[in-house]
Amino acid sequence: MLLDIGCGSGLSGETITENGHAWVGIDISPAMLSVAREREVDGDLILGDIGYGLPFRSGSFDGAVSASAIQWLCNADRTEHNPVARIRCFFTSLYACLSRTARAVLQFYPESISQADLLQNEAMRAGFSGGLIIDFPNSTRAKKYFLVLDVSTYRRLPQALTEGGYQDVPTGVSGGKRTEARECHRLKKPPKHSVAWIKQKKERARKQMKEVAHDSKYTGRKRAQRL
To answer: Which architecture does CATH list for 2-179?
Structure first.
């Protein structure tokens, strides 16, 4: 049994059915679910906001897929919405409703590197292992981001697609720890604890409505050791 997160009109579900799997779809849009019912898709359909968590029992699914849905968790569409809390609630409930051998593959379009980093960090915080894969990383139009998440054991990540075929994925998360140097190089992130890294982290905190000290000429400088 597979879970289709943000199933929409059921296009992904049809592919799941064609490959011989049963599935359940959840989506926030009543209109899209109505289209799915009119198309008579085989999966069970549920109306729900994944930012409030997934309403399923522990270990209900053998895997999960999602296409262009989880990036919307980063938006505050209502005054009571806290993006970080919604993302955390989603990944915690996803981890709980998957079986111990399950894998989740979540395709999404982040607005920025920090947004992709936030989603990945919260997935790891929930208990997943795995990592981020980018298909066609040098293309503006064809580039696609995938979070490939495993529940209980670390498995080798799939190969990313490039214009020349496949390439080995240079990063992953094993035991909850990232290969940081390669991750920084691939996402063009500044080195950890550098001035740019500190400013980027502070800017991310500001966007999350947290209180952050103002930048100054001393930002990122090493403090002299006290005697």
So the answer is: 3-Layer(aba) Sandwich (3.40)
